[in-house]
Amino acid sequence: MIYLFNRVCIVISLMLIASMSYAFGEVGCSSAYEVIDNCMCCQPVCCGQGFISADLLYWRAFESGLDSCVTSETSDIVLSDGKIISRFKGIDEDLHFRWNPGFRISAGCAFECYNWDVAESWTHFHSRAHGSVNNGNRVCWLIDFDCLDFVAGYEYNLSPCFALKPFGGLRGSRIDQKSRVAELSGEIDSSPETEMLITHTNHKEKFMGIGPLMGLKVDWNVGCDIDLFVGASFSWMYGSFDVRLLDCVVSSDVVDICKIRKRLNASLACADVELGIRWRKCFCNCLRLVLQLGLEHHRYFDYNRFCRYGDLSFDGLNFSASIGF
């Protein structure tokens, strides 16, 4: 499945490059420039104007359903009739999810005379988290995320300063996560009554799927080449889950190993929200520079299939630089 996903990415990229090359052909193209004070200034390009952009992401990945109970107090009370009452108090703690860098690369073509544009983007992100269980034992969680979007949008100019752009297309995602827990119960000493119990878990989950994507963006020009923007989208991907669960419990006289593998064909829904500020500038050689600073949130519902369902989320900052030519 991983090789198939990579081949799909390559094929779509080649199709996009071919469409951009056709768009820049001289056949059917109108004049794209206007001479003002001997300077070539940008005008709408009916035959298509290409653009490329690079985004630096600073995200935090977090997932529900990975929390653990940390013991705070245990006690045994012996009643007069010999009964024993055991009391346990614990604190539910989540993992310490870290902030990590990532990137997004995009390319596309805008047909400004017709208010249409098409674009392809690839997002890559890797992150990890750590947590502690009883007696200082450790939990480690890793996530690898790749997402490919191919979308087309149409811009409605409601006023010179306000625009709506609905868009739709396809999204393909590959998400891998791993969770490792090593826990030691009891104490190592010379007392024969003391029993040492070692618990080790190693869980892996992979998802790969593709499906429709649709959304809406709103731009508000506040002057001085500055735009405020907000956007939201929703997608649902059809694909497969490959879940592998390994639990190993070792005591002084018993070794218990449990292996479970699940293959599921299911859909995965995702919601995206973004907002931020954008600065646009057109130079005399008809290059267009766009700088953007924004906030993002992405949520993949019920991605966690280890032991209980949980949502996988990404949120954080993005800084984008785009050049149109």
Structure description:
- By secondary structure, the chain is mainly beta.
- It has one domain (about 1-20, about 45-70, about 90-325): Lipocalin, CATH 2.40.128.
- Helices cover about 5% and strands about 70% of the residues.
- Strand 13 (about 225-250) and strand 14 (about 255-280) form a beta hairpin.
- The chain starts with a helix and ends with a strand.
- The model is unreliable at about 1-5, about 10-40 and about 185-195 (pLDDT under 50).
Q: What features would you highlight for this structure?
A:
72% strand, disordered N terminus, mainly beta, Lipocalin, two-stranded antiparallel sheet, 325 residues
Which secondary structure elements does this structure contain, and how are they paired or packed?
Elements: H1 2-23, E1 33-36, E2 39-42, E3 49-63, E4 68-78, E5 84-93, E6 96-97, E7 99-111, E8 116-132, E9 138-154, E10 156-159, E11 162-185, E12 197-223, E13 226-250, E14 255-282, E15 288-304, E16 310-324
Antiparallel strand pairs: 1-2, 3-7, 3-16, 4-5, 6-8, 7-8, 8-9, 9-11, 10-11, 11-12, 12-13, 13-14, 14-15, 15-16
Biggest beta-sheet profile: 10 strands, antiparallel, barrel
What value does the Rg take, in angstroms?
27 Å
Protein structure class: mainly beta
Report the strand count: 16
| N-end to C-end Cα span | 36 Å
Question: What share of residues are in beta strands?
Answer: over 45%
